[in-house]
Amino acid sequence: MFKLTKKEFQDYSVKFVAECFATCILILIGEGGIANYKFARQPTHSTLPISLSFAVGVYSALMIAGSISGAHLNPAVSISLMTIKKLKPIQCLFYVIGQILGAFFGAVLVYAVYRNQFNEFDGGIRQMTGPNGTADIFFTMPGKGISYFNTFIDQVISTSLLMIYIMAITYKKNHLISEVAKPFAFVLIIIGITSAFSVNAGAALNPARDLGPRLFGAFLYGWSNTFISDNHYFFFIPIIGPIIGAIIGVWIYVGYIWIINSYLHQHHQEQNNHRIKNDLKDIELEDKKPLEFRQKI
């Protein structure tokens, strides 16, 4: 059993609230962007407005919770960091529950804002897929003709890339970016990854971003349709895929840093040894000069 002191409970509770609130804002802006795109019936097939919405959502969430909990916003991030002992298991549990709950509330707010648009779009009859389907506003679905294995690989690779980037940006010895610029860097990677990996599986990258709204969607479209019937248990993919991908990503970066540091340490040691030898050589030359002078005399 995990022992939790009163101080730890208070600390984790505060971070739970921060993660919940920040993730709620992320989903409100991100999925609000999807709803706006869908109901506006955009003639273009570009998903850039959606990518921008999620990027701004991430930036807003970082501003809200970054200084309190680190603004993980993503169970895959929290769980992967737990595997390298950056989070305690019980602390990670607080984070994950807060993130999923926040995503649920974010989806509720999106629906509240666009309720009349939903009715206008589908005639008041909620449908998951088809011409009047609206479920893709809340959670991801596989692309047409895409196998589950392909969607799984998509989520693993895209989330690995995200986690490697997060590790690189937050690495203490990375002096290429300032603390002020880091939120903007996260905006860029979100735009990049969601633009590059959205066709196969909707670029979930985040179990909370999919599961929280999916839980709310179950009240709109039915539990069986949401979790079982329509996509035959697809909901496992945007949960398991990102978690496995994030763990792979974090350990790839840890291994990469170990190799780099080991090589640099060896390289610096060789440089120091070479410098010491040169110093000794200079000392010997300096000692010989007075001797040669005395011999001449």
What does it look like?
The chain is mainly alpha-helical. It is built from nine helices and no strands. Helix 7 packs across helix 8 and helix 7 packs antiparallel against helix 9. It is elongated and about 90 Å long.
Could you write a compact summary of the structure shown?
By secondary structure, the chain is mainly α. Helix content is 72%, strand content 0%.
Give the arrangement of secondary structure elements.
Elements: H1 6-39, H2 48-65, H3 75-83, H4 89-122, H5 148-170, H6 182-196, H7 207-221, H8 223-229, H9 237-296
Which features does this protein show?
9 helices, 0% strand, 297 residues, mainly alpha, disordered C terminus
Number of strands: 0
Question: Biggest sheet, open or closed, and with what strands and sense?
Answer: none
User: What structural class do you assign from the helix and strand content?
Assistant: mainly alpha
Order of helices and strands: HHHHHHHHH
